[in-house]
């Protein structure tokens, strides 16, 4: 019987060739490259399918939108509520409601920003003989136009009131139309516009304003900047010991022209939706206003001015402030977070937190409902977004959320 106690094992050393070592190193490098490429593609949404919308050749695209935006198709007169990135062709009408706004990318590289309560008709969106022509009519509301370098054989035309305006290269311009008076306004903050009325051509240059009334272009004047807000400061926190607080609002006048009046709005919504506006006061001759009894929450305010000459500014970029109560050490969390990509860089973010909480991300905010649920439509070029949840006592919690799968990457 063999004694296992004295059994010996022998190991033969392998002789490994250089070519084998090189092959292993090459395989590792290839695997790392593939893994890195997959990670990069995932971060840039390469693995997210974009719906095939059978986009017509040379069509413009609505690449971003907020709120209620609609398209009336010229061919069928069908009204489409925009819920994802979609196309716009010649003859189509774009309408935005009180809470709606849209960004339109044109075939010549220019971008139209359609403001709330606006209507515009795409007249031409074609590429003929190598040129890229774009033409639209602003029927009501406001459209901002931004162009980069325009080829010589391309035209970008905006019709407002009785005027035809060719937008030149590297221009930022704003066009306003009033359907009731059939008047219009043209503001040029950068670049220039060639305006034609009744066959007469005029160039409106950088930092100029002009209005269109009764088929005539008014005398041009220097573009008036919006009023500059002073107090309450942007993102200021105002403590409330109970019973509401009194807040004093003040702003500075533009220096270019004498001001005849101001228009102030205070709202609980960053987009100043009609049902969220607390103060809507026009024809003010002072630069101060006081509002009493403001309860805890987040508020937004903005001002615009009308000069003695009749020029009205755009709204200033809205400022916000918070009325807060002393902290009660509330534990804030977010659960059931889900993300739906609706097209391009547009996402719908949903989840659940404590009822009444303020939820803010990517410049948009909302309040959680009675069951704690919230829903936000956002636009983000990144694959993640920072979500901040706060209450009316100043308690806050931040989350970094993946826009690929809705997972919470980290809390802060």
Q: How many extended strands?
A: 34
CATH architecture of the largest domain: Sandwich
The CATH topology of the largest domain is Jelly Rolls
Count of alpha and pi helical runs: 1
* CATH class descriptor of the largest domain: Mainly Beta
- The first-to-last residue Cα distance is 71 Å
Largest sheet: 18 strands, mixed
Q: In angstroms, what is the radius of gyration? A: 29 Å
Provide mean pLDDT, rounded. Answer: 84
Gross geometry: globular
Question: What level of helicity do the residues show?
Answer: under 10%
State the secondary-structure class. mainly beta
Count of structural domains: 3
Low-confidence stretches: 6-14, 44-52
Give the strand content.
Answer: over 45%
Q: How would you describe what is shown here?
A:
By secondary structure, the protein is mainly beta. The protein has three domains: 60-222, Jelly Rolls (Sandwich), CATH 2.60.120; 228-324, Immunoglobulin-like; 335-411, Sandwich (Immunoglobulin-like), CATH 2.60.40.10. 6% of the residues lie in helices and 51% in strands. It has one helix at 18-43, and strands at 60-66, 69-72, 79-81, 86-88, 93-96, 101-105, 111-114, 118-128, 131-146, 155-160, 163-167, 172-178, 183-190, 192-197, 200-205, 208-213, 216-217, 221-222, 228-231, 236-239, 245-252, 259-267, 277-284, 288-294, 297-307, 319-324, 335-343, 346-352, 358-361, 364-367, 373-379, 384-390, 396-402, 408-411. It has an 18-stranded mixed beta sheet that branches. The chain has a five-stranded mixed beta sheet with strand order 20-26-25-22-23, with no helix packed on it. A five-stranded antiparallel beta sheet has the order 30-29-32-33-34, with no helix packed on it. The longest helix has 26 residues, at 18-43. The chain is globular, with a radius of gyration of 29 Å. The termini are far apart. Residues 6-14 and 44-52 have low confidence and may be disordered.
């Amino acid at each position: 019987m063999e004694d296992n106690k004295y059994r010996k094992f022998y190991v033969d050393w392998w002789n490994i060739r250089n070519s084998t070592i090189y092959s292993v190193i090459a395989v590792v490098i290839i695997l790392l490259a593939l893994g890195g490429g997959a990670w990069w593609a995932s971060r840039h949404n390469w693995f997210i399918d974009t719906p095939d919308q059978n986009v017509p050749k040379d069509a413009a695209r609505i690449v971003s939108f907020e709120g209620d935006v609609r398209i009336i198709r010229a061919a069928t007169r069908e009204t489409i509520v925009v819920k994802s990135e979609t196309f716009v062709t010649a003859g189509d009408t774009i309408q935005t409601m009180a809470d709606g706004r849209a960004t339109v990318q044109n075939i010549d590289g220019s971008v139209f920003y359609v403001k709330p309560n606006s209507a515009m008709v795409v007249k031409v969106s074609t590429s003929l003989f190598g040129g890229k022509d774009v033409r639209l009519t602003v029927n009501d509301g406001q459209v901002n136009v931004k162009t980069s370098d325009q080829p010589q054989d391309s035209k970008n035309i905006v019709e407002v009131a009785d005027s035809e305006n060719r937008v030149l290269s590297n221009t930022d311009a704003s066009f306003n139309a009033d359907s009731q008076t059939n008047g219009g306004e043209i503001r040029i903050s950068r670049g220039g516009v060639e305006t034609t009325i009744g066959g007469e051509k005029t160039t409106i240059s950088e930092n100029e304003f002009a209005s269109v009334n009764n088929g005539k272009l008014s005398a041009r004047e220097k573009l008036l900047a919006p009023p500059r807000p002073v107090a309450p400061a942007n993102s200021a926190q105002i403590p409330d010991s109970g019973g509401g607080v009194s807040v004093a609002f003040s702003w500075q006048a533009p220096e270019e022209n004498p001001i005849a009046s101001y228009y102030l709005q205070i709202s609980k919504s960053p987009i100043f939706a009609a049902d969220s506006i607390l103060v809507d006061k026009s024809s003010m001759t002072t630069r101060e206003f006081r509002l009493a009894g403001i309860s805890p929450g987040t508020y937004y305010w903005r001002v615009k001015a009308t000069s003695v000459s009749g020029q009205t500014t755009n709204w200033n970029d809205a400022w916000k402030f918070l009325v807060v109560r002393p902290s009660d050490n509330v534990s804030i969390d977010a659960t059931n977070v889900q993300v739906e990509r609706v097209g391009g860089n547009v996402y719908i973010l949903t989840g659940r937190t404590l009822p009444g909480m303020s939820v803010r991300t990517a410049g948009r905010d909302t309040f959680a409902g009675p069951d704690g649920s919230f829903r936000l439509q956002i636009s983000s070029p990144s694959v993640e977004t920072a979500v901040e949840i706060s209450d009316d006592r100043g308690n806050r919690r931040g989350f970094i959320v993946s826009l690929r799968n809705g997972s919470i990457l980290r809390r802060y």
